[in-house]
Amino acid sequence: MNRIDSIFTDLRAAGGKALMPFVTAGDPSVGALPAVLSAVERGGASVVEVGIPFSDPIADGPVIQASMKHALDHGATVEGVFAQVKAARSDLTLGLVAMVSYSIVHRWGLTEFVDTAAEAGFDGFIFPDLPVEESDAAVAAARSAGLILSMLVAPSTPIERAKRIAEASTGFVYVVSRPGITGARTALPEELPGRLASLRGVTDTPMTVGFGVSTPEQVAQVVSVADAAIVGSALVDHLAQRRDGGAEAVALAAEEMVAALASGLGQAAGTQ
Amino acid sequence: MTATTTATGTPDPAQLPDPRGYFGAFGGTYIPETLHHAVAELSAEYDKAKADPAFAEQMATLNRDYIGRPTPLQFAPRLTEKCAGAQVWLKREDLAHTGAHKINNAIGQCLLALRMGKKRIIAETGAGQHGTATATAAAKFGLECEVYMGEEDMRRQRPNVLRMQLMGATVTSVKDGSRTLKDATNAALRDWMATSQDTHYIIGSAVGPHPFPMIVRDFQSVIGNETKRQCQAQVGKLPDTVVAVVGGGSNAAGMFYPFASDPDCANTQLIGVEPGGTGTSFGQHAAAIAYGRPGVLHGSLSYVLQDDDGQTAPVHSISAGLDYPGIGPEHAFWKDAGRVSYAVIDDKEALDAFQTISRLEGILPALEPSHALGHVLKIAPELPNDHVLVLNLCGRGDKDLDEVVRLLEL
């Protein structure tokens, strides 16, 4: 079974929930990635989204844009990210999901990208700019490599379409909490529990919620209705402020912040 | 479903895009799910508008009374004399209201926004012509308007910034990346993701996710349709060659489509001219077809300038309206189908052509169509004197005066 599927199956059996942080590969440096991934795991994450830096991340807010720009300005390449993941994989138990623009995947060639990612030790993908209409080939390629492909459901997605997206998704469905781009917000939308309940009515696939989740309290709110909480910009911002301290300082900060966020998982905190 | 194909397996150009938004292998809808609803809503509204005779009538009236159409197709005697070859004719889109073809699309899309009940319009702009056209249309229809413009372009095209502001638009400076058109497009897309419920995004070129390349092409097709009619009436035959500049490709798509989709125009040669900048390396030009490869950018699959990792390459052109790292998907299709050929004219050739037409015809062109003119000056001398060559003069050069004066050290 794919690692992401096992993680969610085990969590559900134990009544637990998952924390799924996002980190930018290449911030502070590509070489720091193994240390950051271990730190995130020690902090209590079950799955980590590894953001592969892209020059034009249209779904991302200023924090992740700046982080990706830093990574690219400091020489991050896809090959470099794959090499670091490969080096880190054997020391990690958490699931590794590559969050990557389809612009990159297309340029590499879908099959080559998927196979190289699988060989590096990734467990799955999120292609945030590949909607379900365009996803047939990607779904097939991920499946044949034994990897998951999670797709996004937006607040404006009608339920029939959400069902189609959930059916095409493997691993988990990525539920976008609110309209707009990534970035921390003070409050989660009030209608979120209702949306999750409707989605539960059309799919059994685990559901993760991201966009605007930044505090342990919000993590607790999210996992009261979803299987996992995704924290991106808040963590990326926290780590970016510690860039000057190098990989060690960033890894330490990552572990502390992920542990604090994981406290929001309640009794399920730390469950792998 | 697939589009109608001919016996050779090439899709019929008149039937494109197919229902999935593809022009052959190019196009599609590569967007975050957050934008799906807005794009689907636009597709549905556009289909309704196309089927509504009242909409066609409204467009025709605005084209005539507000934009000032038809724009003239005009013989250029002194240019023709200088070239000593083909007869050079100018399609005077620079005489359309606001001074460029961009208004054709801005008015059309504003009408769609009104039909959808949207209260706010956003746009990206490079040279400021599309921003100006959008601010103009928004003012006319009483819509709130915000235009995203790269900081570098705001410097290069200051008169247009002032025009937009005078018409009540907010011009928002984009300081990311290269601070030019690509980054302004990113900013507009990000805005739209959060605001699409009450906001319509008027893309200015024949780029972006389906249905934008089709909608922009259709509203701009008034250029090619008029040219066909005018050429028949004034010259007694169709043009032998039509030349247009291609940045994202909206004026060229509007000029070419009525020819490319009409089997009776099979003998009209169509030439798109890309901006060659100062050289052939990444960062020196913006010629996506000449030096790019198929890739995904800003919602569609087309020729793009990317490195081996799919990162968008830096671009350069003397013209702020052309320094974009991609090209509309229909151009990619026409290129691969062999229906349109694409040439490259560099900064210097464009600047020379700018001066030539200014002195010979008393027309200050924008730097964008100066590229097309640069190509005309190259090919016209080699053609026979019964050859009718039409140049799409897609905009006037007032906006470029500061930049041209600076470059020529006047």
Global morphology of chain A: globular
Helix proportion range of chain B: 40-55%
Distance from N terminus to C terminus of chain A (CA atoms, Å) equals 16 Å
SSE string of chain B, helices as H and strands as E: EEHHEHEHEHEHHEHEHHEHEHEEHEHHEH
CATH architecture of chain A: Alpha-Beta Barrel
Terminal residue distance of chain B: 58 Å
Task: Describe this entry's structure for a reader.
The complex is a heterodimer of chains A (272) and B (410). By secondary structure, chain A is α/β, with parallel strands linked by helices. Chain A has helices spanning 3-14, 33-43, 62-73, 78-89, 102-108, 110-120, 136-145, 159-168, 192-200, 216-223, 233-240, 246-262, and strands at residues 18-24, 47-51, 95-99, 124-126, 148-150, 152-153, 173-176, 207-210, 228-231. Helices cover 47% and strands 14% of the residues of chain A. In chain A, strands 5-4-3-2-1-9-8-7-6 form a nine-stranded parallel sheet, sandwiched between helices. The longest helix of chain A is centred in the C-terminal third of the chain and has 17 residues, at 246-262. Chain A is globular. The model of chain A is unreliable at 267-272 (pLDDT under 50). Chain B has 16 helices and 14 strands. In chain B, the strands form four sheets. In chain B, strands 3-4-14-9-10-13 form a six-stranded mixed sheet, sandwiched between helices. Chain B has a four-stranded parallel sheet with strand order 7-6-5-8, sandwiched between helices. In chain B, strands 1-2 form a two-stranded antiparallel ribbon. With 410 residues, chain B is an alpha/beta fold. The mean pLDDT of chain B is 96. Chain B is globular and about 55 Å long. In chain B, strand 5 (120-125), helix 5 and strand 6 (144-150) form a beta-alpha-beta unit. In chain B, 43% of the residues lie in helices and 17% in strands.
